[in-house]
Amino acid sequence: MLRRLGDRFTIPITLVVAPAGYGKSTLLTQAVGENRLDGSGIDLWLTCAPEDAAGSSLAQGLCRAVGVLPAASIERSVEAVVRAMWARSPNEVVLVLDDVHRVPPGSDGAEVP
Hints:
Helices cover 40% and strands 11% of the residues. With 113 residues, it is α+β, with helices and mostly antiparallel strands. It has one domain (2-111). α3 (55-66) packs parallel to α4 (74-86). The longest helix has 15 residues, at 24-38.
C-alpha cells in the first residue's frame, strides 16, 4: 500500500477506501512521513471534520492546509488554494483530505469546487 501511495505525485486522484478502524489515516501518515525522507513532492494535509459539511468551513480548512488566508467567498478561497499549490511548481503537490467521509454527499461542503 505504501508503494501505491508513493505514486500519488503522478496520479491525479488517489483514494484510500476502507471501513472505520482499518488504518487509513495511519497509512496516510506513514506515507507522508516517508515522503519527508525522500522528498518526491509536497504533501499538504487537511483532516475533515463534521463542520466541513458547510462549504465555508471546508474552504477555510483548505486555505489553512496550503498556508493562505481565506477569502471573502468560497470561490475566491478555492482560487487562492489553487494559486498557492501552483506557486510551488515545479514541485508536485498532493492535498491529502483525511476523513473526507465527514463531508456528506449533497452538503454545501461536498459542492466546494
